[in-house]
Amino acid sequence: MKCRSGCAACCIAPHISTPIPNMPAGKPAGVPCSNLDAQLNCKIWNDPAYPALCQAFIADQEHCGNNRVQALHILNLLEAETAPDV
Predict the structure, then answer these.
(1) How far apart are CA 60 and CA 47, in angstroms?
(2) What does R_g of the chain's alpha carbons equal in angstroms?
(3) Which SS3 state, helix, strand or coil, does residue 5 take?
(4) What 3-state DSSP class applies to 20?
(5) Residue ranges of the alpha helices (H) in 17-67?
(6) pLDDT value of position 86
(7) In this structure, how many other beta carbons lie within 10 angstroms of the beta carbon of residue 10?
(8) What is the pTM of this model?
(9) Predicted pLDDT of residue 36
(10) Is the N end or the C end of the chain the one with fewer CB atoms within 10 Å?
């Protein structure tokens, strides 16, 4: 499946512990990536700065559901299930 334009669930739900452009300390779970534009599209897509971590994510029905709301729900659940105990 192809990524949905304006979805950005994978740019919001997960915690990213490594530095990414414009977020040198990484990205907390549930916080939109600072590389998103107002339409929730990635401003650095296909740019050399586009992180390998982001490139590795492949849109799939299992993770993305049928729409943005489902994608956010699924990815938030996965994030919660895999988050380290603090």
Answers:
(1) 23
(2) 12
(3) coil
(4) strand
(5) 52-56, 61-64
(6) 62
(7) 19
(8) 0.90
(9) 97
(10) C
Tokens of 20: 């990414």
- Count of positions (residues) in the chain: 86
DSSP 61: H
Helix (H, G, I), strand (E, B) or coil at 43: coil
**10-residue block means of pLDDT along the chain (86 residues)?**
94 94 95 97 93 92 96 96 81
- The residues, ordered by sequence, that sit 6+ positions from 18 with a Cβ below 8 Å of its Cβ are 26, 51, 53
- At 73, give phi and psi (nearest 5°): -60, -50
- Structure tokens given for 31: 């916080």
pLDDT of residue 61: 95
What 8-state DSSP symbol labels residue 31? S
Q: In whole angstroms, what is the distance from residue 34 CA to residue 72 CA?
A: 17
Please give the single-letter amino acid code of residue 13.
Answer: A
